[in-house]
Amino acid sequence: MAMLKTFLLVLLAYIAYRFIFGFVVPVTKATRNVRRQFKAAQEQMEEQMRAQQGYQPGETQVNANGSANQQGSAREIKKDYIDFEEIRD
């Protein structure tokens, strides 16, 4: 009877070991790796957006909803515009 208990305990320990190191550890590593890649991709996209918008600290940025976002000083971004003249025939 004691030998059967020992055998079952060893078998259970082996199954637990295989489960932990064959499933739990790889899934944990993969999850950590995916999170790191998403974070790097997000930072890269934010950097590209800043570069496209000509972002510099201290400038006023206009959000998609039209509200201004002050960062740093009270400077405003000068906007280019074209004078419009109506030409009549």
UniProtKB/TrEMBL annotation:
Bias (Polar residues): 54-73
Biased composition (Basic and acidic residues): 75-89
Domain of life (superkingdom): Bacteria
Region (Disordered): 48-89
Protein's name in the database: DUF4834 domain-containing protein
Species: Flavihumibacter petaseus NBRC 106054
